[in-house]
Write a structure and sequence with these properties.
mainly alpha
Length: 566
C-alpha cells in the first residue's frame, strides 16, 4: 500500500508540476507553467487531503527503516500543506525578492534546449507567461479584498525588480537566455528564426505583462497600503503564524519557546564575540568595534571582480579540505557567479542556485556584488561555506544522487534540515581551517548571531508586535552585518513569516547531535562517517533526523572497537 501511495503521489506531482516534468524530458510539459487558478488549487488540495488520509492508514512501524523515513517525510509535506490551505497562502505569492514573477527567470536560467522541439517549447512557454502572471494577480486581488496582503515596504522592494524586468531590452532579458544557449548546430540552422520569434514574444507579450503587474501593484495593491509589518495584523494572522512556526521548524513548538531560545543564543554568542574583541586589544566599546568593521576600507573589496575572486579562493580552499570531512562527494560541480543585475539591489549577500547534472547545469554560488561597501570580506568565509561547500551545494548535489529512495525524496527541500546544515557548516569551517584571522572568526560569529537574532526578530515582529526599528536594532547592536544587509534582511523576514526560524533551529540540533556522538563514541568517533550518515537519506523533519542519528550513534557504540574505527 505504501509503495502504491508513493507511486501515485509522484505521478500526481509531475502532473501538477510541468517545470519538473519538463526537466525530466516531457516535451508537452516543457511548454506549460503550473496552473495557479483557483480551480487547480482546489483540485490540488483535495488530492493532498486524500493522500494524507491514505498515508495515515498505513502503520509506519510495519515498514522497513528506509520506508519509515519516507513515510515521515511525506507526512510532514502533506500535513504542512493541508494546514496551510486553511489560510489561502496563494493570496500572497511573493516575498520581498522573489515569487511568482521571478519563477520564470529561474526556469530560464536552467533551461538549455538541446533540440528544435525543446526550443519551440520554450517559445510556447513565453506565449503562456502573461496568463501565468494574470492568474497570480487574481489571487492578489482576493488578498486585497480580504485584507490579507504584504506590507507596503515589501511591495516597494518588489516594484524595483518588476520595473527592471519590464524595462529590459528583449534580447537582454533573462527570458531570452534559453535561445542564446542553443547548441551550435541549432543556431546555425534555426538560430535567426528562433531568436526573432523569442524577441517578438518577449517584446510584444511578456514585457507588457510584467509592466501590467507593476501597474496593478501601484494602482490597486497600494491604493490602501498596509503599514503594519507583523502577520498577526492580518485576519487570522496569529493562527497562521503559529502554523508557520511549526512548518518551518518542523517541530511542535510555539512562538514563545522559539523567542526564548533566540534570546539565550544571542547572549551566548555575544560573549564569544566580546572575547575576540578583547583578544584583538581593541580600545573602545563593542558598538565602536562594530563601527570600525563596517567603515574601515581594509575590510571591503574595491571591485566586483575582487569580491568574486576572493570568494572563489575561499571556495577552492574548502574544496581542498572536503575529503578529510566527507567520505562521499557528489559528482556535480559548482561555480562562483555574480547575482544578476535585475535581482542584486534587493537580493541577499549570497545564495545557492541548485544545478542539474542531467541537463548540464552546475550549481551556482551566487555572490552579490552590488553595493560593495556593504559586503565585508570578514564574513566571506562563512558565507562561502554555507552556500557552496560543505553547505548547500554539497547537500543538494548529494540529495540529487540518492539511491534506493523514492524520487520525491531527491527533490524535497526542508528548510530546517537544509539551512540547519548550512549554518552548521559555518561552524565546521573552524575544524577545516578556513578562518585565518580573528576578524574572520568574528565574521563567523556575526553570521551565527544573525541567525540567532532571527529567532528573536521574526517572532518579535510577527507575534509580539515589535517595530521594524526594534528588529533592526537586534542585528545592528549585536552583529557586524552591514546596515544595507540588515535592512534587506528585515524586509525579508517581514515578507516571509516563520522561514527565518528554521536556520538556528536546525543548526542547534545538528551541533548537539555531533556533541552526543563525540561524547558517546570517544576515540571511535569518525567525523566523515557522521557527516555521510547525517546527509545520507536527504532532507527530513528534525525529529526524524534526531531519531536516525541516535540509532547510528548507538549502533556505532555497540560495534567492537576495531570495527568502529574502520
Amino acid at each position: 500500500a505504501f509503495e502504491r501511495l508513493v507511486g501515485d503521489y509522484e505521478a500526481w506531482q509531475l502532473e501538477e508540476n510541468p517545470i519538473e516534468a519538463g526537466r525530466r524530458g516531457d516535451l508537452e510539459a516543457l511548454a506549460r507553467w503550473p496552473d495557479p487558478t483557483p480551480a487547480a488549487v482546489d483540485r490540488r488540495r483535495t488530492r493532498e487531503r486524500g493522500f494524507l488520509e491514505r498515508l495515515r492508514a498505513i502503520d509506519p512501524d510495519a515498514l522497513d527503516a528506509a520506508d519509515r523515513t519516507s513515510h515521515t517525510v511525506l507526512d510532514y509535506l502533506l500535513a504542512a500543506d493541508v494546514a496551510a490551505a486553511a489560510f489561502d497562502p496563494e493570496r500572497v505569492p511573493f516575498v520581498n525578492d522573489s515569487g511568482f514573477f521571478t519563477t520564470p527567470l529561474y526556469v530560464a536560467a536552467s533551461t538549455r534546449p538541446a533540440t528544435l522541439e525543446q526550443a519551440e517549447a520554450w517559445l510556447a512557454r513565453l506565449d503562456a507567461l502573461p496568463a501565468w502572471l494574470a492568474a497570480h494577480v487574481d489571487w492578489l486581488r482576493k488578498g486585497v479584498e480580504d485584507g490579507f496582503v504584504q506590507p507596503a515596504q515589501v511591495v516597494e522592494a518588489v516594484l524595483v525588480q518588476l520595473d527592471t524586468i519590464a524595462g529590459a531590452q528583449p534580447t537582454e532579458s533573462p527570458l531570452f537566455a534559453p535561445i542564446e544557449a542553443l547548441p551550435a548546430h541549432l543556431k546555425a540552422e534555426h538560430g535567426d528564426r528562433l531568436r526573432a520569434e523569442a524577441q517578438a514574444r518577449i517584446e510584444e507579450k511578456v514585457l507588457p505583462a510584467y509592466a501590467a503587474v507593476a501597474r496593478f501593484f501601484r494602482e490597486e495593491y497600494l491604493a490602501e497600503p498596509r503599514e503594519s509589518i507583523g502577520i498577526s495584523e492580518v485576519p487570522d494572522g496569529r493562527a497562521y503564524y503559529r502554523a508557520l512556526v511549526r512548518r518551518h521548524t518542523t517541530l511542535d513548538t510555539t512562538p514563545e519557546a522559539v523567542h526564548a531560545q533566540g534570546l539565550a543564543e544571542v547572549q551566548r554568542i555575544r560573549a564569544e564575540m566580546e572575547a575576540i574583541v578583547d583578544e584583538l586589544g581593541f580600545e573602545g566599546t563593542f558598538a565602536e568595534f562594530l563601527d570600525f568593521l563596517r567603515t574601515d576600507p581594509r575590510f571591503y573589496a574595491e571591485t566586483p571582480e575582487e569580491l568574486l575572486m576572493r570568494a572563489a579562493w575561499i571556495a577552492k580552499r574548502a574544496d581542498d579540505r572536503m575529503p578529510e570531512f566527507f567520505g562521499r562527494l557528489p559528482r556535480l560541480p559548482y561555480g562562483v557567479r555574480p547575482v544578476p543585475d535585475h535581482l542584486a539591489p534587493t537580493y541577499t549577500t549570497g545564495r545557492y542556485w541548485p544545478g542539474d547534472l542531467d541537463n548540464g547545469v552546475a550549481g551556482g554560488y551566487m555572490v552579490n556584488t552590488y553595493a560593495l561597501d556593504q559586503r565585508p570580506l570578514y564574513v566571506l568565509p562563512a558565507l562561502t561555506l554555507h552556500e557552496a561547500v560543505p553547505g548547500h551545494h554539497h547537500q543538494n548535489a548529494l540529495s540529487q544522487e540518492l539511491e534506493d529512495v523514492p524520487e520525491f525524496r531527491r527533490n524535497t527541500y526542508i528548510t530546517a534540515f537544509g539551512e540547519g546544515w548550512g549554518l552548521y557548516t559555518e561552524f565546521l569551517g573552524i575544524d577545516m581551517g578556513i578562518y585565518t584571522t580573528p576578524y574572520e572568526h568574528f565574521g563567523r560569529l556575526t553570521y551565527e548571531m544573525w541567525r540567532a537574532c532571527r529567532l528573536v526578530v521574526d517572532t518579535g515582529m510577527h507575534y509580539f508586535g515589535w517595530t521594524r526599528e526594534q528588529a533592526e536594532a537586534c542585528l545592528l547592536e549585536n552583529s557586524a552585518l552591514a546596515p544595507h544587509n540588515v535592512r534587506t534582511e528585515v524586509t525579508r523576514y517581514i515578507a516571509w513569516p516563520g522561514q527565518a526560524l528554521a536556520y538556528k533551529t536546525g543548526e542547534i540540533l545538528i551541533r548537539d547531535l555531533r556533541q552526543r556522538a563525540e561524547e558517546r563514541l570517544g576515540d571511535a568517533f569518525d567525523i566523515r562517517a557522521f557527516h555521510d550518515h547525517l546527509l545520507g537519506q536527504g532532507a527530513m523533519p528534525l525529529d526524524a533526523l534526531e531519531e536516525r542519528m541516535e540509532r547510528w550513534i548507538e549502533g556505532r557504540a555497540d560495534e567492537p572497537a576495531s570495527a568502529a574505527s574502520d
